[in-house]
Amino acid sequence: MADSRITHIRKKDRNSTSEHITHAGVPGSWYWTREQIIESINKSTNTFFVEENGNRSNVGVVNPTDGRSPYIRTHADGKWNDNLLALPEH
Questions:
Q1: Closest to 34 (Cα-Cα) out of 48, 45, 14, 52
Q2: How far apart are CA 59 and CA 6, in angstroms?
Q3: Are the beta carbons of 89 and 8 closer than 8 angstroms?
Q4: What DSSP character marks residue 83?
Q5: What is each CA distance from 34 to 14, 53, 71, in whole angstroms?
Q6: Is residue 30 within 8 Å of 90, Cβ to Cβ?
Q7: Rounded distance, CA 30 to CA 63, Å?
Q8: Beta partners for 84?
Q9: If you write DSSP's letter for every residue of 29-81 in order, what string do you get?
Q10: Three-class SS of residue 6?
Q11: Tens digit of pLDDT for each residue in 31-84?
Q12: What is the pLDDT, as a whole number, of residue 16?
């Protein structure tokens, strides 16, 4: 199992603060679709994280119960947060 740091994201609408992430990864190294990351987390084949100021936030899958598609979000200290949306876009 690989433990991979995510440094950049891609969204359909770059100006939206709540638009779903379509891709995430490290430019020049790897870039996966949201669906690939979700599948990998669900199958426990990889883990993903974001690091800011030496603090790690793990990436998890949120499965809404209102019919929306699953999405990825960071989780640290027992709380869901928006560290992924704060990453630069590439």
A1: 48
A2: 9
A3: yes
A4: T
A5: 16, 25, 7
A6: no
A7: 25
A8: none
A9: TEEEEHHHHHHHHHTTSEEEEEEETTEEEEEEEE--SSSPPPEEEEEETTEEE
A10: coil
A11: 999 999 999 999 999 999 999 889 899 999 999 999 888 999 998 888 888 889
A12: 60
Q: Which residue has the tokens 């969204």?
A: 11
Whether 48 contacts 21, CB under 8 Å: no
Quick count: other Cβ atoms within 10 Å of Cβ 55? Answer: 10
Dihedral angle sign, alpha carbons of residues 51, 21, 77, 38: negative
Token pair 């990453």 is found at: 87
The pair of three-digit structure tokens given for residue 12, joined into one six-digit string: 């359909």
Q: Which two tokens stand for residue 44?
A: 């426990």
Cβ–Cβ under 8 Å, residues 83 and 57:
yes
Pairwise CA distance, residues 55 & 70, whole Å: 25
13 beta partners: none
